[in-house]
Amino acid sequence: MTLRAGIPSPPIEWASFTLGPLTLHWYAIIILIGIVAATLWTNHRLTKRGGEPWVVMDIALWAVLLGLLGARLYHVFTHPADYFYEGANPLAIFFIWEGGNAIIGALIGGAVGIFIASRYTGIRFWSFADALAPGLLLAQAIGRLGNYVNNELFGQPTDLPWGLQIDASNPAFPVGLPEGTLFHPTFLYELLWNLAGVALILLAERMFRLRWGKAIALYLVWYGIGRIWIESLRVDYSEIILGMRSNVFGALCLVIIGIVIYIVQARRHPEPEPGVYLPGRGPADLDAAAARQDEPETRDEPDAGADDDGTATTEVDSEHPSETSR
User: Fold this and answer.
1) pLDDT tens for residues 58-93?
2) How far apart are CA 292 and CA 26, in angstroms?
3) Which three-class secondary structure state does DSSP give residue 110?
4) How many other CB atoms sit within 10 Å of the CB of residue 98?
5) Distance of CA 32 to CAs 35, 38, 112, 145, 238, Å?
6) Distance, CA of 75 to CA of 26 (rounded, Å)
7) pTM for the full model?
8) Range with the lowest mean pLDDT among 108-117, 267-276, 301-310?
9) Domain range for 227
10) Could you say which of 66, 185, 230, 245 would form a disulfide bridge with 164 (CB–CB 3.0 to 4.6 Å)?
11) pLDDT by residue (tens digit) across 113-138?
12) pLDDT tens per residue across span 227-237
C-alpha cells in the first residue's frame, strides 16, 4: 500500500496496550489527562479568586461523572445506527474507550453536575464556570489526540499537504475513494482552535473583567463557532436536524446560548462579582457561625425571692399571717 505524503496516522494497534491482566486504551488515558489538567488549572484560578484550595474536587467529581454520562448518551442518541442494529452488542453503549463521546453532551451533563455540587459547596455556579472556561478548552484540545490515536472522526478528502493518512482497511474509510486518499485532520483543527480559544479567554480577562458567567459565555461562542466549521468537514454518519448535522445544530445552539448568557449577565450584574461564594457560605461565614454555636450559653440566676421575671415576691407564713393578711 502506498500513501501520499501527509500526516501519518498511528497504527490502529497502538490504540491500546496490555499491562499484566489489564487492557489499557490510550483514548481513555488521554481523556483522563485532560480532566486532570483542567482540574488543576481550575483549582488554581478559583483559589486566586478566594475559593478554598481543592474545593474544586467536590465539584469536579459531579461534573466529570455526569459529563461522561452526558457525552456518551448524546453520542449514542446522534449515532443510533452504530449501536442499534441486528446482532449489536447492547453493552457497546458503555464502551467509552472505543471513542464516541460527544463534547456537547459532556457540556450538558457537566453543567448539571456543577449546578448540583455548587449548591452543596456554596460556590457560585457562574464563578466556577468562569474559572473553568480556559481549562475546559485545554482539556478538549488534549482529548482530540485520542481521536488521532483511534484513527477516527477525520474530515473530507483533501489535497492539502497536511492531509491525514487513513488506512483503506479502516471501517470508517469512505466507500469508493481510492487507496491513499488524504483527509482533513479535523482532530488537529479543533486542537489548534481550542488552544487559540484559551489564549483569547486569557487575553479578554486581562482587558475586561469577565465575571458573572461572561468567560464561560465567551467559551461557548468560540467553541461553538469552531465546531460548526469543523463538523461541516466531517464525513462520518450523523443524524440530520433541520437540515444540519446533529453536532452542527448543537454547536449553533452553543453559540446562541453563549450570546444570551453574556447579554443577560452583563445587564443583570454590571457590578463587580462580590466573591466566589454565595452569601453566608464562605469559609469566614461558616467559621463565625461555628464559633457562635460553640459559645456557652449564660443565664442570669434569679435572685432569691424573685420570680423568673425578676419581680420581688413576698412569702406569707401560713401559721403566722401578717396583720395585713388578717
Assistant:
1) 999 999 999 988 888 888 887 777 787 777 777 777
2) 53
3) helix
4) 15
5) 5, 10, 20, 12, 26
6) 19
7) 0.80
8) 301-310
9) 23-283
10) 185
11) 999 999 889 999 999 999 999 999 99
12) 999 999 988 77
Task: Phi first, then psi: give them for residue 170, nearest 5 degrees.
Answer: -65, 130
Q: Which of 181, 70, 48 is nearest to 127 (CA)?
A: 48
* Count of residues making up the chain: 326
On whether residue 223 sits in a domain, the answer given is yes
- Calculate the alpha carbon distances from 236 to 72, 78, 183, 198, 210 in Å: 17, 11, 12, 28, 37
Round to whole Å and give the CA distance between 308 and 324.
25
Q: Which residue type is seen at 126? A: W
Question: What CA–CA distance (Å, rounded) separates 189 from 147?
Answer: 12
| pLDDT tens, position by position, 132-150 | 999 999 999 999 999 999 9
Distance CA 228, CA 210 (A): 25
CB neighbour class for 21 (10 Å; exposed up to 12, middle 13-18, buried from 19) = exposed
Q: Is 4 marked as binding a ligand?
A: no
Give the confidence band of 284 by pLDDT, cuts at 50, 70, 90: low
Torsion of CA 99, 102, 106, 108, to 10 degrees: -160
In this structure, is residue 49 part of a structural domain? yes
- Residue 316 domain-assigned? no
Which residues are registered as beta bridge partners of 277? 123
**What one-character-per-residue DSSP string does 200-225 give?**
HHHHHHHHS---TTHHHHHHHHHHHH
Q: Is 214 a domain residue? A: yes
Q: How many domains does the chain have?
A: 1
Q: Is 233 exposed, middle or buried (0-12, 13-18, 19+ CB in 10 A)?
A: middle
